[in-house]
Specification:
The complex is a heterodimer of chains A (132) and B (141). Chain A contains no helices and nine strands. Chain A has 132 residues and is an all-beta fold. Chain A has a four-stranded mixed beta sheet, with no helix packed on it. Chain A has a four-stranded antiparallel beta sheet with strand order 2-3-9-8, with no helix packed on it. Chain B is globular. Helices cover 12% and strands 35% of the residues of chain B. Chain B has one helix and eight strands; from the N terminus they run αββββββββ. Classes of the chains: A mainly beta (132), B mainly beta (141). The interface between A and B is large, with 52 and 62 residues. Strand 2 of chain A pairs antiparallel with strand 5 of chain B.
Chain lengths: 132, 141
């Protein structure tokens, strides 16, 4: 069972983009699971430390872009003495196929995990063809 | 992004540099489980007290277990990743499993006043230094 295995640590992957960033902060690629059910495609993204108000999900043409910003004011007044991971914003973009109903995308966030549910268009959903 | 506020971003950049600088230190190595165990921890100092911060995305408060004894902090729990029965996976990057980590801090912790908070996938444990462990200043005569 998956629950029985020991968790291992993986280094955060820094975002590499062709576009230049205007802020001197680091961006990381959030760990993402993508799974498909008969009526929807679901993206599950880990963005620990980001509040709901600091998440932006934008859809432009076929590109779904997620940006999540860390509120670093929480780190004010404390001094790092030992560290194992770096803190930064998160960004990731996905290209959607035309099977996704772009008017019907919903998002929830819980415990630092963002779930995007992308409904499929009617034509892309499996259906049974009756034989006449 | 029309207005650039130099100060807050600089604060973040300084934090990141501070974090990077300590990355290779062996400050916690002597503990029962040192670096390389899940969850990765950042330790901060706030005056005499310590603040341990860990990223625990997708782990509910109820699945976390925190114990303090002497100068050792133990963080244990289970992270589960669930999908519905009829789901087919396209990409799988999130890990699931059990974890149990104990770290020893260089000070004695006042176990009765430890506070732990979990919000937005971040676990913050405030560890006040025990009064009897604090250095006493000696007046030179």
């Amino acid at each position: 069972m998956a629950d029985q295995q020991e968790l291992t640590v993986r280094d955060k992957k820094e975002l590499v983009t062709k576009e230049e960033k205007t802020v001197p902060a680091r961006y990381y690629v959030p760990n993402t699971d993508i799974y498909e059910t008969p009526d929807a495609l679901t993206l599950v993204m880990e963005i620990p430390g980001v509040e709901k108000k600091d998440i932006s999900v934008e859809l432009e043409n076929d590109r779904l872009r997620v940006e999540a910003r860390i509120d670093f004011s929480k780190y004010e007044g404390i001094e790092p003495v030992y560290t194992e991971y770096n803190v930064g914003h998160y960004a990731r973009a996905f290209t959607l196929s035309n099977k996704i109903d772009k008017e019907n995308i919903s998002a929830q966030v819980e415990d630092g995990v963002l779930t995007l549910t992308l409904s499929k268009v009617k034509e892309a959903q499996p259906r049974r063809i009756t034989i006449s | 992004m029309a207005v650039l506020l130099p100060d807050p971003f600089e604060a973040l950049f300084r934090l990141q540099q501070g974090l990077d600088a300590f990355r290779t230190s062996d400050w916690l190595q002597s503990g029962p489980s040192g670096a390389g165990s899940y969850p990765p921890l950042n330790v901060f100092r706030k005056d005499d007290d310590f603040v341990v911060i860990a990223e625990v995305p997708g782990i509910n408060k109820s699945a976390l277990e925190i114990e303090v004894k002497g100068s050792t902090l133990r963080i244990a729990g289970t992270k589960s990743v669930n999908y519905s029965e009829d789901a087919s996976l396209h990409r799988r990057e999130r890990l699931a499993g059990r974890f149990d980590r104990a770290v020893t801090l260089p000070v004695v912790i006042d176990a009765d006043n430890v506070r732990a908070e979990s919000r937005d996938g971040i676990l913050v444990v405030l560890l006040p230094r025990a009064e009897r462990d604090k250095p006493k200043s000696v007046r030179v005569e």
